[in-house]
Design a protein that fits this description.
The protein is α+β, with helices and mostly antiparallel strands. Helices cover about 35% and strands about 20% of the residues. An eight-stranded mixed beta sheet has the order 7-8-16-13-9-12-11-10. Strands 1, 2, 5, 6, 14 and 15 form a six-stranded mixed beta sheet that branches.
């Protein structure tokens, strides 16, 4: 089936290039072919040729999605230093000029003078220098665009090393009273707190002397591009599976319990009923159970999180009327959806296996918190890897579950 979709009928987000429209059209055609082949496969079970054809189309769908993600990412990346209309303070201009001189030639007198003037204690010549605020902001925006969990999680910027969030384990007694009735004394609330320490995350891009001497190269842009992928990859793994030791604590690292026995401090799970697999009949029913394990207040902003291999299996599921539950992005630059909820691809989620927690669902904006300590530092090292110049770039990041009732996990086990 080769259904042609006119470009005029495709929607796209503002700012995406025409290439995104073409790629989105390719995805829609591939999905139509996928549905047709899968329907035929279900009618002719055991047909090896159809199985192989479906696998090829499935791979083509994934490849098209990756191309679309790449196009959308390039469009989402903010540019640095190209806004002629931006009004910057004199100190910001001086900081930018001094930072560029340090990166290109190692001249640090300008940065030292600025930090002494500002009474900065956040950095020193042994630990590097703070990047200009606009570069720090752009690195944060770029990470949000490409880091799957950061893009849906809550966030907080702090100036210290630890963010502590209080919560009530038992609230004060409350009730209804008449306008003239006596108000009985209420009990005091019981408070506890969650701690989110910010751990050091680093990248060490290398540059040649030729690149640093080339005045046409935007150094700010280069540093942001070099560190964003490294930071995003490390963050992505930590936010999902991190053990909390010198890194954020991932939501899969908390104690899990069957959702019927859920208590605060644990994450509830829904079992598929099959060790290492989906139920043989009506496998999508467990996804419905997962969705409705989340309270209504969280469910309306819910999202599925899974890796690409798990999504490939879910793509074949249908409802009772024969409609496919997985749908490709409705617009170029959007997300695929499952049962109308967005699907976030996080490759650090485990593959389906016995006892695995391969699918998460919930309101991650309320459930998971990313903590960033203000300030990104760069230390220039021209000695360790001569003739290359290394730039030891660090930022402090923390993370952990802040609302244990907002996220639920699908467990591929009997119970």
């Amino acid at each position: 089936m080769d259904t042609q979709i006119p470009l005029a009928e495709l929607e796209t987000k503002a700012g995406l290039p025409p290439e995104a429209l073409v790629t989105h059209g390719d995805m829609m055609r591939a999905f139509e072919a996928f549905k047709e082949t899968n329907d035929e496969r279900l009618e002719k079970r055991g047909d090896v040729v159809l199985e192989e054809k479906l696998a090829r189309i499935d791979s083509a769908l994934d490849a098209t999605q990756r191309r679309l993600d790449t196009i959308a990412l390039k469009s989402a990346r903010p540019q640095i230093g190209h806004d002629s209309k931006a009004v910057r303070s004199q100190s910001a201009i001086e900081h930018k000029a001094a930072f560029e001189a340090y990166v290109r030639s190692g001249e640090s007198a300008g940065l030292r003078a600025l930090e002494v003037k500002a009474l900065s204690v956040g950095s020193n010549p042994d630990g590097g220098y703070l990047v200009p605020p606009e570069i720090e902001t752009q690195i944060g925006e770029r990470l949000t665009a490409i880091s799957p969990i950061r893009s849906i999680a809550g966030s907080r910027t702090i100036s210290g090393n630890v963010y502590k969030k209080p919560f009530m384990t038992a609230g004060p007694a409350v009730g209804w009273v008449g306008e003239t009735d006596a108000r009985p004394q209420t009990t005091s609330p019981t408070l506890d707190e969650l701690s989110f320490p910010a751990m050091e995350l680093y990248a060490m891009p290398a540059a040649t002397a030729t690149l640093l001497e080339d005045s046409a190269v935007n150094i700010d842009q280069w540093i942001a591009q070099e560190v964003e992928q490294v930071f995003a990859a490390q963050e992505g793994a930590a936010f999902v599976t991190g053990d909390g030791t010198n890194k954020p604590k991932g939501f899969l690292s908390y104690t899990t319990v069957a959702n019927d026995s859920w208590t605060w401090g644990n994450i509830g799970t829904i079992a598929t009923g099959v060790a290492g697999g989906w139920p043989a009949s009506d496998p999508s029913d467990v996804l419905v159970d997962l969705i409705y394990a989340v309270n209504a207040g969280y469910r309306q902003n819910g999202a599925f999180v899974m890796n690409r291999k798990t999504q490939s299996a879910v793509r074949k599921f249908k409802d009772s009327t024969g409609n496919y539950l997985w749908q490709p992005p409705a617009v170029a630059g959007g997300r695929a959806s499952l049962m109308t909820f967005p699907v976030v691809e996080a490759e650090d989620m485990p593959d389906v296996a016995a006892g695995s927690l391969s699918v998460a669902f919930g309101d991650f904006n309320r459930g998971y918190l990313v903590v960033d300590r203000a300030g990104v530092t760069v230390l220039r090292d021209p000695y360790t890897a001569k003739p290359y110049v290394l730039f030891y770039t660090t930022k402090r990041v923390g993370g952990g579950v802040q609302d244990f009732d907002a996220i639920k996990l699908l467990k591929f086990a009997v119970s």
